[in-house]
Fold this protein.
Amino acid sequence: MSSSSVLPIHKKLLSISLCVCVILAIGVKVDGSAGTTAADQFVYSGFSGADVTLDGAAAVTPSGLLELTNGTLRQKAHAIHPAPLRFREPRNGTASARSFSTSFVFGILCPDPDACGHGIVLFVAPGSYDLSAAFPSQYIGLVNATTNGDKGDHLFGVELDTDQNNEFRDIDGNHVGIDVDGLVSVSSASAGYYDDRGGGVFRNLTLASGEATQVWVDYDGDRKQIDVTMAPLKMAKPSRPLLSTAYDLSTVLTDVACVGFSSATGSFNSRHYVLGWSFAMDGPAPAIDISKLPRLPRFGPKHRAKLAEIVPPVATAGFILAVGAIAVLLVRRRLRYTELREDWEVEFGPHRFSYKDLFNATEGFRNKNLLGVGGFGRVYKGVLPVSKTEIAVKKVSHDSKQGVKEFIAEVVSIGRLQHRNLVHLLGYCRRKGELLLVYEYMSNGSLDKHLYDASDDVPILDWDKRFMIIKGIAAGLLYLHEEWEKVIIHRDIKASNVLLDKDMDGRLGDFGLARLYDHGANPHTTHVVGTIGYLAPELGRTSKATPLTDVFAFGVFILEVTCGQRPIKQTSNGNQLLLVDWVVDHWHKGSLTDTVDARLHGRYNIGEAYLVLKIGLLCSHPLSSMRPSMHQVMKYLNGDMPPPELNPTLQNFETLALMQNEGFDSYIMSYPSSVATMTTMSNVLGEVIT
Ligand SMILES: Nc1ncnc2c1ncn2[C@@H]1O[C@H](COP(=O)(O)OP(=O)(O)OP(=O)(O)O)[C@@H](O)[C@H]1O
Ligand SMILES: *[C@@H]1O[C@H](CO)[C@@H](O)[C@H](O)[C@H]1NC(C)=O
Ligand SMILES: *[C@@H]1O[C@H](CO)[C@@H](O)[C@H](O)[C@H]1NC(C)=O
Ligand SMILES: *[C@@H]1O[C@H](CO)[C@@H](O)[C@H](O)[C@H]1NC(C)=O
Ligand SMILES: *[C@@H]1O[C@H](CO)[C@@H](O)[C@H](O)[C@H]1NC(C)=O
């Protein structure tokens, strides 16, 4: 039976849940069989014809590679052994996890080794575990923000993680971790092995090297110990494991569970492969036949090691190798700087940067120059070689070249915007699969850091600065809405998109998203874009961004700056509460000024703070017709006109309730802000670029 005829059926089942259906179908075979049977072990040296349930992007290539992801963004993939296995049996009256061993050979290919995600997890989960709502991002397609860390998951995993995520307390961007019920590892170590041939010396391995690497995971049910070992392919299993951790899986695993792989790409073009896999209960995993393994594909300028293998070991090998290496270096050099340039770009000439300049400016996009990671990609600091201008380079991945022309035209027209409260876009560069946007560098970083991560070197912002920033952003937004030749809707106003220049003036950034509309024309309906907590309720219904949806986000933003709290508050009992509702509540109780950031210790101008809170509530009014225009907002802020009194009846309902009526609930509830930004942004990118 060919694998292609089996897989589609499994694929369907999987969309319902992990493998519960498969359990029902063949449960008879597994039930009650505690001893080692043929069903308790398997070995695949290559996956041609293998009986593996595939889901998401996973596929078996004609050469027998299990391809989890193929370099497309935001993919997730699962490959699961279809038969559930008995992982626990009664011992001394309690259910105790049995010993098991598994081994696999994997390969991860990344076009950019510095920005690579998100890795592969080998996991054991109950048959009823639901993978459909797992996120295709740093959650590696295994959990989502809700299920991560939930004891009810009954999840065990070994992660090969190629990206450092602080929320999971990852030690680095190239580590192996033992996971229980989520991606915060019980223990982890940088990838590598203790070399028996070198007297046990530790040698680093790069997970995303594009080289086949073998991993062994052994659980000892008697000693309650998990060992994880890895080594380059063709090397015997090192005697000292990379990780050796005491952990009793009896409390984690269910009696019957499924074993498989999960992977996800998030915002990276990485490819994840498994070449071979074996498993056994109560005994060592059967040996994988290395000679039968399929070959990993190659891409990018990464041929050096392979070349060495092909060259015959003769006396001239050294010479040939040297010539080869030089050739490869030359090719690499060329590849390194290749960019896409087409005829239509001539008119945009002055805005075009050469990749070589950007590469040199950022010291080769070194991690040390990484300013931050946003929904679209990474942002690096750089200094232009000749002018010594400081820049921030945003690397945006994209797959297709259709629509790029319109996008570039937009970028260039955005580049013509000049206002002291906007981050100036200096230009762009294009490469295969990648767009680079060049902005002025803002030495004081983004406002959210000053609001939330204040420490000794980033002191808490005093009220005068906050008020100045609020006025500045209002002026910037007014310019976009009313003072340029076209109406520009920003669509993603939030604290992390407000950057502070050297004078601590606020500048609105991230115009990659702004779409241009001619004055008076009806804005087209497009996908919802923006970030949860800042989205006006009507967006859930119409998906139509207007200047008033920007005003809503601006209202939330100024409340955030005044209160020093995120738009969605976590209450002490773990519930979520919209900041707007919390401020409205205080307004009803007549204690509006209690909402002002307590870290200011009362050192603020009460009149100004009261004014800003009031404007914040007016702007973030659930009914768009009740919101002021930016022109009016500017007048209120400058004291040229008093703001209207807040209307108690209209303001007197829970915004969230209204949002739910507008079909917003699934939206608010199912995405943490970063993920929502990413999904919605990728929709827009999809529209603009693909
Ligand atoms: N021009 C700049 N100067 C200095 N730092 C910058 C600049 N642009 C971005 N950064 C830094 O890079 C980080 C990431 O920026 P980016 O705009 O990609 O993401 P974000 O605003 O956090 O999220 P999103 O992509 O959802 O808008 C910012 O938080 C900021 O610290
Ligand atoms: C990758 O897989 C997706 C489906 O998951 C497919 O749409 C896409 O065309 C594939 N891309 C390549 C380069 O094979
Ligand atoms: C079972 O219990 C006995 C006595 O309590 C103990 O000696 C033995 O080690 C236990 N066996 C296991 C496998 O836990
Ligand atoms: C291995 O990698 C770690 C972290 O990247 C580094 O600190 C260490 O020096 C490396 N060791 C060797 C032997 O290369
Ligand atoms: C996470 O997944 C569970 C099911 O596995 C689902 O009930 C929940 O809504 C999801 N959470 C998010 C934030 O998507």
